[in-house]
Write a structure and sequence with these properties.
The protein has 339 residues and is of the alpha/beta class. The chain folds into 3 domains: 8-52, no CATH class; 64-164 and 300-326, Rossmann fold; 167-297 and 330-336, Response regulator (Rossmann fold), CATH 3.40.50.2300. Helix content is 45%, strand content 18%. It has helices at 8-15, 19-26, 37-50, 56-63, 79-94, 108-120, 135-143, 167-180, 196-209, 229-241, 253-265, 283-287, 299-316, and strands spanning 68-73, 98-103, 125-128, 147-151, 161-165, 185-191, 215-221, 247-250, 275-279, 293-296, 323-326, 329-331. Strands 2-1-3-4-5-11 form a 6-stranded parallel β-sheet, with helices on both faces. The protein has a 6-stranded mixed β-sheet with strand order 7-6-8-9-10-12, sandwiched between helices. α1 (8-15) packs across α2. The longest helix is centred in the C-terminal third of the chain and has 18 residues, at 299-316. The termini are far apart.
């Protein structure tokens, strides 16, 4: 059974004072309301002793809602996140809310600092792609009654609403597609990360190999090197050291961009010599020759569900622990189909 949160009423009863007195002291109005220093100290000492934290929703009711929602993602310039941001902004505006965007760069320290700053600005809610080690911070937000929805990835140890896609199933289907196209030596290029979506994509890839004769080689690239030359070098070395690969699955589109560059350098013909699939479709994949087979995430559905969950929390003033998992679509193109 969940532990009942301490309320202003509980504090008032414990100290034998009125709820109004406690409320004035908590809101810094003790002197204005001529409450004695002795009484103020008594209340402050007690709330410090029990570790009381005022409800964010209760504060909002007293101070007025900011009507601002924070949208925190790994990289707001990424097409996937930017597309969702645009749709969220539209729905938020129609419901009287504004959106603040920020990029975490998958940096936990930066994320914590940003959340702390936004909390002091009295924002109403957070839509977050969580970084590693953010469990305590998200729990704290929930304890303080902030509206919180996670997306793209979730935190297994925190009971919080989230919107994600079928990462494992989609990765499995994409890998099976390569196998059905005759691939016997498969490469998997991914981010070296403990994030749930990356783990699920890896699991889907490996599960597709079970019971087949296909062999695999895996490359994990550190996140902070993705925008640097080291990522390109690592991927080039990977393909150079595995000339037997006849199929490759990239867990993200930005890794696929680097991979295509490496394959061109090596003179590999797609799909004649190596077939290719990427997670997270991109408009560039249709322009490339040959066009790239990719898993398309349901952008509009993700945005719609994110805002629906957020607005329900803000309107009802309580946490809605809803878990939504959406299906993806595998767009088959010439890069994976060799006739």
């Amino acid at each position: 059974m969940a532990k009942k949160k301490t309320s202003i009423k509980d504090i008032a009863e414990a100290l034998g004072v009125s709820i109004t007195t406690v409320s004035f002291i908590l809101n810094g109005k003790a002197r204005e309301k001529r409450i004695s220093d002795e009484m103020t100290g008594k209340v402050q000492d007690y709330i410090k002793k029990i570790g009381y934290k005022p409800s964010h929703i209760a504060q909002s009711l007293r101070l007025g809602k900011s009507k601002i929602i924070v949208f925190m993602v790994e990289d707001i310039s990424n097409q996937f996140f930017a597309s969702i941001a645009r749709l969220i902004e539209e729905k938020a505006y129609k419901n009287g809310y504004k959106i603040i965007y920020c990029s975490t760069e998958n940096d936990t320290i930066k994320t914590k600092e940003l959340i702390s700053t936004f909390k002091m600005r009295n924002v109403d809610g957070f839509i977050i792609t969580p970084t590693p080690g953010l469990e305590h911070v998200v729990r704290k937000l929930l304890e303080e009654d902030f509206a919180v929805v996670l997306f793209d990835r979730w935190i297994p140890d925190v009971d919080c609403s989230y919107v994600v896609v079928e990462n494992k199933l989609s990765a499995k289907e994409a890998t099976q597609h390569l196998i059905h196209q005759g691939c016997k030596n498969l490469g998997f290029v991914t981010v070296d990360s403990s994030q749930t979506q990356m783990n699920d994509r890896m699991d889907g890839f490996l599960e597709a190999l079970i019971g087949t004769e296909a062999k695999s080689a895996i490359l994990k690239v550190k996140f902070h090197t993705i925008s640097e030359q080291e990522a390109s070098r690592k991927i080039l070395e990977f393909f150079s050291s595995h000339p037997e690969l006849d199929g490759v699955f990239f867990s993200t589109n930005y890794l696929a961009f680097e991979g295509l560059h490496a394959l061109i350098k090596l003179g590999k013909k797609i799909p004649e010599q190596i077939r290719l699939v990427s997670f997270d479709d991109h408009y560039f994949f249709n322009l490339f020759q040959p066009p790239i087979t990719a898993i398309e995430q349901p952008i509009e559905e993700i945005a719609e569900n994110l805002m629906d969950l957020m607005l329900k929390q803000l309107e009802h003033g309580e946490v809605q622990n809803n878990k939504i998992i959406l299906p993806n679509k595998l767009n088959l193109r010439e890069s994976s189909v060799y006739k």
